[in-house]
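Progress narrative, Year 2. Work on ABC transporter permease from Corallococcus carmarthensis advanced from sequence curation to structure prediction during this period.
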Amino acid sequence: MSRRLVSALIAMVGALLLVSLFLHLVPGDPVDVMLGEQATQVDRAALRQAVGLDLPWYAQLWTFARDLATGELRTSLPPFQRKVLPALGAALPYTLLLTVAAMAVSLVLALPLGVMAAARRGTPVDAAAMGVSVAGVALPRFWLGPVLIILFALKLDWLPVSGAESWRHLVLPAFTLGTALAAFLARMTRATMLEALREDYVTVARAKGLSPRVVLWKHAFRNALLPLVTVLGLEFGALLGGAIVTEKVFAWPGMGTLLLTAIEKRDYNTVRATVLLFTFCYVLVNTLTDMAYSWVDPRVRRRS
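Result:
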């Protein structure tokens, strides 16, 4: 547990250092966003000193860490320097809801597709399932989202275009975000199932006269879960990253929208805090994934 905690702290500090360096390398001046390019040098210098932008990047990072620890972290630029933590607290549930919904969509689509392809290897069913998975990987989210909006929101008028007022607003962004992961998981499920079906315990189960359905789902599928659990933990971070684009397309009020808005406004404090929260969520899910190993595979529990 102590090793995991140290790894988590290193990951979060590393992410904070990297994003702080990148913010100072990105073209554009936060002062120009506030005052405009026609402002005088005196006004620019006064604003820069007022918000601490005249300090070195490491001094700005120390100020950020201090304010974050005391709960007094505010947006970088005046006149309305609002606290950042309430904004993050309001956006986080929306991003987690979208990510969990996208994960559910991907599992509902991928597991039956992969198991069916493995059970009927070499048949047209297998070829069709893998063709669908390749198409899902190839379709970028920034293209799929607008296409779904045009089809289901504008043409058919079945679902709303944007917002987060009801569960109907969640359908399109969750499907957009979960499609690529579903395609990848379907191929992964097929590969792990084919490996499990070649094991001796499956041969013994068949020799006992068990039905193909019991052999497939109770014996082969259970033992094929461990690699899938690993992939799900790693891909959660990919879903968080994909949520940034998806939230922007569907105007979903989550952390992705908050992050992109902060980048546009050169709000350094909000960018740092949002990236730090993304990193924490990713590290937490990876830790929970490690703990899930002992449930899926008792051998891991005995070794630990």
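The longest helix spans residues 84-119. The chain is about 80% helix and 0% strand.
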